[in-house]
Amino acid sequence: AQSVTQLDSQVPVFEEAPVELRCNYSSSVSVYLFWYVQYPNQGLQLLLKYLSGSTLVKGINGFEAEFNKSQTSFHLRKPSVHISDTAEYFCAVKSGANNLFFGTGTRLTVIP
Amino acid sequence: DVKVTQSSRYLVKRTGEKVFLECVQDMDHENMFWYRQDPGLGLRLIYFSYDVKMKEKGDIPEGYSVSREKKERFSLILESASTNQTSMYLCASSLGGSTANYGYTFGSGTRLTVV
Predict the structure, then answer these.
(1) Average pLDDT for chain A
(2) DSSP for B38-98, written as a single string
């Protein structure tokens, strides 16, 4: 069975500071990994995805994530956050024919 | 752009009512999904469908049913709403087969309150 762990439920960070949102997964087969963002009162929007190839994946709004197979991690990073990055972020994993499985989310709050 | 439209943003219903949540996608996607989102629990899959008139149970199907009579429309039905079904409901769609690995497109969500 696959699972996704987002270690931090809330991450406060000052504006223009760097941020890392952590995500670990468990799966014994090849996986596809995703980060979604949810702004207040909206649905989920795809930030970035890892399917294959380069382990460093760049997404929208200056975010990037690195796939680390040995550590089964897919942490999301941004070198300098803005107020507009305040949102909830979800890591998700898909393996084989299974459906997308989500973590419990990390609420990022950017403090001016 | 793929668009997934959920008919209601906010809905208030009484306990015991039959509730219909509608979802329509406009890009000919084969797969459609219903999730519910609760604080601290993330997104949990209720039902999904790979084709017209086909449906599969997700992780938490109890108390729900679905209908997919047309490819573009996937309805979630609460036969007799209860207060523990107060939640945010999210619909999603994706292409079929291995192309589903490219990810899902979500609607804006329906926040349902059962009183």
Answers:
(1) 91
(2) ETTTEEEEEEEESSTT--EE-S--TTEEEEEEETTEEEEEESS--GGG-EEEEEEEE-SGG
